[in-house]
Amino acid sequence: MALRAFSKLKISKFSTSLLLNLTNKPSVGTPLPSDLHLPTSDLAALPNNFLFGSRQYHDGRPRGPLWRGKKLIGKEALFVIQGLKRFKDDESKLSKFIKTHVLRLLKLDMIAVLTELERQEEVYLATKMFEVMQKQNWYEPDVYLYKDLVIALTRSGRMEDAMKLWEAMRNENIFPDSQMYSEIIRGFLRDGSPGDAMNIYEDMKKSPDPPDELPFRILLKGLLPHPLLRNRVKQDYEELFPEKHVYDPPEEIFGRR
């Protein structure tokens, strides 16, 4: 009788364990046998968690561009970015921080800091960072370093600072590309300085690179209230791009009768 009771107890425990194993989802999927070959169509019809386990674990890291961007920036570079932003309103502390921390960065970390400051629209700090980089032994004039900073300054409305950098770039015999010309011209037109925009336009015509359509389009639109300047640009545009059409709005729109 004791043997019968012991057998019932073992069967009960086994049944309970079996029931739990059947109802619980496995944390890791059972791999397919190595000799099992399924047609591609049958594999496509299988659920996503069949081959790789029924549960999808998250490792806690954020997804998307933010994480990928921060992975490219080292810890020291991130520390420098935070420090520069902390002391940007105190020139003496900022200068001390640059001497003690920024100058210790490697070349790639300095470039990463500059790029991130531009992305965050911290153009004053980005200019400071670029000045530090220009004093390094490894520095060589590079159009892309100038380009990103000039565009960031222009989009922030700091046209005077952008032009200082523009002159420094030209003194190093670096020619702007079409995007730089477009952004500078757009910035001057936005600030109500068509004369300065035309000076950049004249400089663009001397560039060794072939002209691009975009700067002309920006000027033709921005110079609508200035017909004499616009006609000069329109004539050049029609000569360079004879297959393109220039829309001229009615003169009454701007009070010219």
Task: Characterize the structure shown.
By secondary structure, this protein is mainly α. It is built from 14 helices and no strands. The longest helix is centred in the first third of the chain and has 22 residues. The radius of gyration is 32 Å and the shape is elongated. About 12% of the residues have low confidence.
Supply database-style keywords:
257 residues; 14 helices
Map the helices and strands.
Blueprint: H1 2-23, H2 40-45, H3 48-52, H4 65-71, H5 75-86, H6 91-100, H7 107-119, H8 123-134, H9 143-155, H10 159-171, H11 178-190, H12 194-205, H13 213-222, H14 227-240
Helix pairs in contact: 5-7, 7-8, 8-9, 9-10, 9-11, 11-12, 11-13, 13-14
Give a nutshell description of this structure.
With 257 residues, the chain is mainly alpha-helical.
Helix content range:
55-70%
The pLDDT mean sits at: 78
What's the assembly state of these chains?
A: single chain
Along the chain, the helix and strand elements come as HHHHHHHHHHHHHH
**Number of helices, counting only DSSP H or I runs of 4 residues or more:** 14
Strand content: under 5%
Cα gyration radius (Å): 32 Å
How far apart are the first and last residues' alpha carbons, in Å?
118 Å
Coarse shape: elongated
**Largest sheet report:** none
Structural class: mainly alpha
How many beta-strand elements? 0
